[in-house]
Design a protein that fits this description.
Layout: H1 2-17, H2 19-29, E1 86-90, E2 101-109, H3 115-119, E3 152-157, E4 161-165, E5 173-182, E6 196-199, H4 204-207, E7 208-215, E8 224-228, E9 231-236, E10 241-248, E11 254-260, H5 266-276, E12 283-290, H6 299-307, H7 317-321, E13 346-350, E14 360-363, E15 380-389, E16 394-402, H8 406-409, H9 425-434, H10 451-462, E17 474-475, E18 481-482, H11 494-498, E19 505-506, E20 513-515, H12 526-530, E21 577-578
Antiparallel strand pairs: 1-4, 2-3, 2-5, 5-6, 7-8, 7-15, 8-9, 9-21, 10-11, 10-12, 12-13, 13-14, 15-16, 17-18, 19-20
Helix pairs in contact: 5-6
């Protein structure tokens, strides 16, 4: 019995050695799948499957479980994961229930060719809002394969975080995709993850830049300004017409800066249209008004600026610019529009090819107030932020604020008793009763109450029998003559208040001298104020306004004061700032740009 018990284990060994084969046979007949992984090495001719439909096997055969991969996914990416010299990405683990992950393949690609090649695949209309942005990138034309470089394997390993180094200052986009592969070739690889677009970042002063443009008019006396990134490009108030500035969207460098006198010269308007058409959609077009611009703005200029996004610009062209004019200081002889409609503050930021009405435009009333000291002028202002699009490698515009009068934006007239329409409300109600149909009511006429419009009235009110200023007296039936009982320093008419003080007064019955003062011919700038002021401008009056009157904008005289007098645009001590063409190169003619590189 002892020997039998000692030999008993040896008797069981054949049964124990046959157990794995029996278990495998049982599982096979029970239709239970056996994992052909590292634990059960691949042998024989099991069913073969390709890795996926888009990959070639290069003559290799893959096991059936190679199609069971759960591919990795790129982790959500934010610009905080990028610097000026690197881009960091991460991805989730891949998974296959039948084998291990041996390594990950990470591939990258970047936009190819000139930046405009990729940008041209996007429409400029609808203010650059692409209607297909929600489509998968494979179905979206800007993501077409020919617009990007071929995929290059950048990393191969087991880690799931990767930082790609780039050269300093080469701000551009990088696309990543990743897949996982098994330890043996028969395990195959997973499908590629969805493409993730990332980019390096520029400095805060380059990534987002602010801009401010301001257009002025003849009654909105102020400096015309073009300011980008807190630097003054143009700031003057001694020119007339339209100021054109053109910036490259690639690096926001200044390429053009010139003023065109479209108010007096039609040739200037044609030249402006010709100059704008030299630039394509890779440029921003900035147009601001200075004093006045409408009279000779030709139809070709209208079409050109509408091509760049303008809408309201052309409403004066057919009225003033495209036919002969009959100049009248008193009335509109042609009965088509009041000549008081000159000098509207206007500003435009557009892109060539964006289409009419798709630019950013500001247009204000040319309302003029009487001696507007302390009255804020109605300038055309556009403020906004331009951001750098790292994928298309150019600047775009967002967060725009632009002023626009409701009369031009919505066709709504200014309400009564307002800045632009000081007519009493009860008179407006009379017009509504007189003209019950809105279309039959008189058209809106801008309110121009400036000293230039009223000077003849107040001069006439100061005189009795020109050229002598008889005293204002009361004569009784007994031939007793009474004058103003107030002190003589209070004997002031409106023209005397604004123009050099009291007038000489005489008794009307015998012409004898009553009140010492000045005759109209003895006042400063007499010929200018009574006759030639309507044709005055900073350009025509010359240095220190010698061609008009040297006493313009003199201290103590409201009649010729800068910003309020009869010629508010004539201002001494004006500080003008304008960048000059430095002739550096055709690429950078001016010493202004946001991104400084030679790419």
């Amino acid at each position: 019995m002892a020997l039998r018990s000692v030999n008993e284990p040896y008797a069981l060994r054949p049964l124990l050695s046959a157990a794995p084969a029996a278990l495998a046979c049982f599982l096979r007949f029970a239709n239970v799948s056996v994992a052909a992984a590292d634990y059960f090495p691949f042998k024989g001719h099991h069913p073969m499957y390709p890795m996926n439909d888009s990959e070639t096997s290069n003559g290799l055969e893959f096991a059936w479980h190679s199609g069971k991969w759960q591919p990795p996914l790129m982790q959500p990416w934010d610009a905080l994961r990028a610097t000026s010299t690197s881009v960091t990405v991460a991805w989730t683990p891949a998974w296959n229930p039948w084998c291990d992950v041996d390594h990950y393949d990470l591939q990258v690609r970047t936009p190819s060719g000139h930046p405009l090649v990729l940008a041209d695949s996007l429409g400029l209309q609808l203010r650059e809002a692409d209607t297909q942005v929600d489509m998968p990138f494979e179905d979206h034309s800007p993501w077409a394969e020919e617009l990007w470089t071929p995929w290059q394997t950048e990393y191969n390993g087991r880690a799931r975080v990767f930082a790609r180094r780039v050269e300093l200052g080469t701000a551009h986009a990088v696309q990543f995709r990743v897949r996982a592969c098994g330890r043996h070739h028969s395990d195959g690889c997973s499908a590629w993850s969805p493409v993730q677009t990332t980019h390096t970042v520029l400095s805060a002063m380059q990534d987002r830049i602010n801009f401010h443009v301001r257009g002025t008019g003849k009654n909105a006396h102020n400096y015309t300004i073009i300011e980008v990134n807190r630097r003054i490009i143009y700031q003057r108030r001694d020119e007339t017409g339209l100021v054109l500035a053109i910036f490259s969207r690639l690096d926001f460098s200044l390429h053009w800066l010139r003023t065109y006198d479209t108010q007096r010269n039609r040739t200037e308007g044609v030249q402006m249209a010709t100059d704008v058409r030299m630039f394509n959609q890779s440029f921003f077009i900035v147009v601001v008004s200075a004093i006045a611009w409408e009279w000779h703005a030709p139809h070709i200029l209208v079409k050109t600026l509408e091509f760049c996004g303008a809408y309201h610009f052309g409403q004066w062209a057919n009225i003033f610019a495209e036919h002969g004019h009959y100049v009248s200081n008193a009335s509109d002889l042609q009965q088509d529009a009041s000549q008081d409609e000159f000098g509207h503050p206007f500003a435009l930021i557009g892109i060539p090819g964006i289409g009419a009405g798709n630019g950013w435009e500001s247009l204000m009333h040319n309302t003029g107030q009487y001696l507007p000291r302390g009255v804020r002028p109605q300038d055309a202002v556009i403020r906004g932020v331009a951001y750098y699009d790292y994928v298309h490698r150019l600047f775009r515009i967002q967060d725009i604020f632009n002023t626009k009068a409701t009369f031009y934006a919505k066709g709504v007239r200014p309400p009564p008793e307002s800045l632009h329409n000081p007519t009493p409300a009860h008179k407006n109600s009379i017009d509504e009763l007189k003209y019950p149909i809105p279309a039959a009511r008189p058209t809106h006429v801008p309110y121009i109450g400036t000293l230039a419009n009223k000077i003849f009235h107040i001069i006439e009110a100061n005189e009795t029998v020109p050229p002598y200023n008889f005293a204002f007296v009361l004569v009784t039936t007994a031939k007793v003559r009474y004058v103003d009982p107030r002190p003589r320093e209070m004997w002031v008419t409106e023209v005397e208040r604004v123009w050099d003080g009291p007038s000489a007064r005489y008794w009307p019955h015998n012409g004898t001298f009553l009140q010492p003062g000045l005759d109209i011919s003895e006042r400063s700038c007499a010929e200018f104020i009574t006759q030639t002021f309507q044709f005055a401008s900073p350009e025509l009056c010359g240095m220190n306004f010698e061609s008009c009157c040297t006493e313009i904008d003199a201290p103590g005289s409201l009649a010729t004061a800068c910003g309020a007098g009869i010629s508010p645009t004539l201002c001494k001590h004006s500080i003008g700032v304008q960048l000059e063409d430095a002739g550096l190169s055709q690429k950078w003619p001016y010493e202004f740009r946001i991104i400084d590189w030679e790419s």
